Amino acid sequence: MKHRCDIWRISEQCGVRLVDPDAHAWRQRRPRECFAKKTLKKIGQRHGEAHLALTLRLIVETYGNATELYSETIQAVSALVANPAIEARGGKLFDEFDRISLAEIRHQAKVLAVGLPLAHVMRVLLAVRLADSIFIQTKAVA
Questions:
Q1: By the 8 A CB rule, do 40 and 34 touch?
Q2: Quick one: which of 65, 60, 64 has its CA closest to 40?
C-alpha cells in the first residue's frame, strides 16, 4: 500500500534540513543535513510518515549520529524499524542507538565489501549490534 508522505514536513519536525543533491559539495557533512530526498520519499510511501519520522529521529537524536543521513544508512535503519519486534522496544531503542556509531557501521560495511548493497550489509551489522546490546543487558540483569 502506498502511503501519502510529505517528506518536507516530516524532515522539519525531526530537525532535518533537506538539501538538493546537486548542491552536494565534497566537504564534511553538517549535522542533520540530508541529500537523500528520493530515499525518504520511498520509505515514507512504503511505511508511512510515522515510520519515516522514527527512522530519522533514531539517526539525528542519538549520540554522534546526526551527520549520518546517508541514503544507505537511512535504508538500513528503516529496515530494522520495520521489524515489529525492534519497533516495540520504544524508548529503549534510542538508548541502544546511543551506543552505536552509525559512521563505524558504515565504515565496517564498506570494508567487508561482500558484493551486496551497502544498506543490506549495514542492516545486518546493526542487527548484530542491537542483539549484542540485548544480550549484554540480559546478562547484567541475571
A1: yes
A2: 60
Distance CA 37, CA 22 (A): 12
Q: Give the contacts of 20 (CB within 8 A, at least 6 positions apart).
A: 35
Using one digit for the tens of pLDDT, what is the confidence trace for 25-83?
Answer: 666 778 999 999 999 999 999 999 999 999 999 999 999 999 999 999 999 999 999 99
Tell me, yes or no, if the pTM score tops 0.70: yes
User: 73: which residues sit within 8 A by CB, 6+ positions away?
Assistant: 59, 102, 105, 106, 119, 122
Query: Which residues lie closer than 8 Å to 108 by C-beta, 6 or more apart?
Result: 125
Alpha-carbon span 22 to 26, nearest angstrom:
11
How many C-beta atoms surround the C-beta of residue 142 within 10 A? 5
Residue 32 and residue 108: Cα distance in Å, rounded? 22
Q: Give the pLDDT of residue 24.
A: 67
Cα 31 versus chain centre, distance: 14
Pick from 94, 91, 100, 88: nearest CA to 132: 100
